[in-house]
Design a protein that fits this description.
The protein is an alpha+beta fold. It is built from 16 helices and 18 strands. The two termini are 22 Å apart.
């Protein structure tokens, strides 16, 4: 669609000249995200106040204009691509940390605050916000909320849904509302806060978030465990998570991921069939006992070496290798298919074994790594469209990956969300009655279907 002159005039009444653009070059900048999908919007606006968002949504509802809220476009599922054109609302200028309250362990922020900027502001006061996705230096808090982002620390401290106390938002009717409270407990009606988290901007647009903070641990140790193959590493993950000491990170890399990591940071990354990065935090007086418990669980058939990082530099190299994997794989296979499936931790060994069989059957290399401590494995199909065999096999290969995940009582996504990339699989992933309830909830929040149309729900 193309915006009419009266509509543009109404937008100009809400936004100053430097906060509204119909310039073709600028619209192109906000047309895509990290999924590499693209669709050009008719206009881009840059809200700085809650009141502007209320007015914008009201205008879009009245004129049936699609409205896509956008953080920094780091998501990999196409969730912020304006596939129906209309207006993109970019929240990069609504980026203030409104309050940090150590006494109540909370922070209140605007949607465009970057995750890393919040962490930097919290650290001197001895706190952190638990979600720590790889894109933390340049992803926004509202973007984290939209897809229920996680990261390595989620294994102990939870993903976004466990770390948001309250929200201020505007639904698709143009109605402003608050949900949740700045308290750690609450039993007052339906939990709309948790409903909005992970809804990918399809129910409401968030204008303020009250976040649960966690004190920084006074001590931390990092272990590196290498194994002869991915099956042995997956079994170790199940053992580690079945004993009482919960690591604050438990990351998994298969052999091919290790090879790529070695290319990135050098010989400090071991040559093995698989590796676990294990972090344990807590009081220094109790860390030795915790490390001993984790080490016993990590040991077993297939262990090559269990090594404790000697210093901060070694720890930094390990994490740099882990965080470089996604871009490295995209360089190797620009059209790779990246899925962030999740299964019960005890079934990770079955997932890994099944993926090996699928890879062999379809002649498509599959590289796996990710947050093994909560069963959230990043499955990368290194698909090359110029290879006729891989091109023909890729759809069936991906479908079999999801069939395997569902058979193991798993889910389509652990932290990336659904967006455009996984919409077609939702009827296979969600009970039909539950899916119908989701559709009805969407209709209540957004009766005209203006908020991020074409995403999440089939």
């Amino acid at each position: 669609m193309k915006l009419s002159n009266p509509t543009l005039a109404s937008l100009q009444a809400i936004f100053p000249a430097d906060a509204l653009s119909t310039d073709a070059a600028e619209r192109a900048v906000y047309a895509y995200d990290n999924s590499r999908r693209e669709a050009i919007p008719d206009a881009v606006v840059f809200p700085t106040t809650h009141e502007q968002v209320v007015a914008l949504v009201g205008l879009c509802r009245d004129q049936r204009i699609p409205l896509t809220a956008r953080g920094r476009g780091t998501n990999t599922t196409g969730a912020s691509v304006p596939v129906c054109a209309g207006i993109v609302a970019s929240f990069e200028r609504m980026n203030r940390i409104l309050r940090i309250d150590p006494d109540n362990r909370l922070a209140i922020v605007e949607p465009g605050v970057l995750n890393a900027d919040l962490q930097a502001a919290l650290k001197p006061q001895g706190f952190f916000w638990a979600p720590d996705p790889t894109s933390a230096p340049y992803c926004s808090i509202a973007g984290n909320i939209a897809c229920n982002a996680g990261g390595p620390r989620a294994v102990k401290y939870g993903a976004t849904r466990e770390n948001v106390l309250a929200l201020r938002a505007v639904n698709g009717r143009g109605e402003a509302f608050r949900c949740g409270k700045p308290t750690s407990k609450g039993a007052t009606g339906y939990d709309l806060t948790r409903l909005l988290i992970g809804s990918e901007g399809t129910l409401a647009i968030i204008t303020e978030a009250t976040l649960r903070l966690t004190p920084l641990a006074s001590g931390k140790r990092t272990l590196r465990a290498t194994y002869v193959d991915i099956t042995a590493a997956a079994a170790a993950v199940a053992r580690i998570m079945a004993q009482p000491v919960t690591p604050c990170a438990l990351e998994y890399l298969d052999g091919e991921a290790l090879r790529l990591a070695r290319n990135h940071v050098g010989e400090s990354i071991p040559d093995a069939g698989a590796m676990l990065i294990i972090e344990v935090d807590g009081d220094p007086d109790t860390l030795a006992t915790a490390i001993d418990a984790i080490s016993r669980a990590a040991s077993g058939t297939g262990l090559i070496e269990l090594h404790a990082a000697h210093d901060a530099d070694e720890v930094a190299r390990l994490w740099a290798a882990r965080k470089a994997l996604s871009p490295a794989l995209r360089t190797l296979a620009p059209n790779k298919i990246n899925e962030d499936v999740v299964v019960p931790v005890s079934r990770v060994p079955e997932l890994v074994a099944g993926l090996k069989q699928i890879s062999t059957r379809h002649a498509i290399p599959i590289v796996t790594f990710g947050h093994a401590g909560n069963g959230n494995i990043h499955v990368n199909l290194l698909y090359r469209p110029e290879d006729p065999v891989q091109s023909a096999n890729a759809p069936a290969c991906l479908s079999e990956v999801f069939d395997l995940v569902f058979a193991l009582d798993g889910a389509l996504s652990g932290e990336h969300g659904i967006g455009l990339a996984k919409r077609e699989f939702m009827p296979r992933a969600v009970d039909p009655v539950a899916l119908d309830l989701m559709q009805r909830i969407k209709a209540q929040f957004d009766p005209e279907g203006i908020l991020n149309p074409g995403k999440l729900l089939p």
